Amino acid sequence: MVFKRQKPVKHKKKSLNGDQPEIIRVRLPKNNETLGILEQRLGGSRTRVKCLDGKERICRIPGRLKRRLWVREGDIVLIEPWELGGDGKGDILYKYNPTQVMVLRRKGLLENLDEFDGF
Questions:
Q1: Per-residue model confidence as pLDDT tens for the chain (119 residues)
Q2: What is the DSSP letter of 54?
Q3: Beta bridge partner(s), residue 38
Q4: Are 89 and 57 in contact (CB under 8 A)?
Q5: In whole angstroms, how large is the CA radius of gyration of the chain?
Q6: Which of 16, 71, 86, 103 has the fewest CB atoms within 10 Å of its CB?
Q7: Which of 86, 83, 88 is nearest to 59 (CA)?
Q8: What pairing do the DSSP bridges indicate for beta strands 76-81 and 56-60?
Q9: Are 59 and 85 in contact, with CB atoms under 8 Å apart?
C-alpha cells in the first residue's frame, strides 16, 4: 500500500482587534538620515538613489542587511549619507512598504516627491 503525502494546511491568521484600525509604526529619519527614491540598481549591492534633499547618491546595502533587504526601482528608502565620502555616497538603512509610505505622505515627509520627474 502506497501512501500519498499530504500538503500542510495553511490557516489564515484571525485579527484579534476586529473593527479597530491597525496601528502602524513607521521609522522616521533621525539626525542626518534622509529619505530617497531608488532610481537604479547597479549590481554588487549598490544602487543609485535620488534623495529628497535634492542630491543623487550611490548607496550600498550594508552586509548585515544584504540578505534581508530586497529593493526594486521606485522603492522609498531611508539612507544615511557617508561622512567621509562626501555627498555622493551613502548606506541604505530601511525600505518602506506601501502602507508606511502612505503614513509618511500623511505626515508631510514626502511633499518633495512630486517635484521629481516621473514620480
A1: 666 666 665 655 555 555 556 667 888 889 889 999 999 989 888 999 999 888 899 999 888 777 778 888 999 999 999 988 778 899 999 999 899 998 898 888 888 766 655 44
A2: S
A3: 49
A4: yes
A5: 19
A6: 16
A7: 88
A8: unpaired
A9: no
The position carrying cell 502506497 is 2
Q: Could you give the domains of the chain?
A: 34-114 (2.40.50.140)
**90 grid coordinates:** 551613502
C-alpha cell recorded at residue 57: 547618491
- Give the sign of the dihedral formed by CA 88, CA 94, CA 95, CA 96: negative
DSSP letters, 60-72, are: E--TTTTTT----
The β-bridge relationship of strands 56-60 and 46-51 is antiparallel
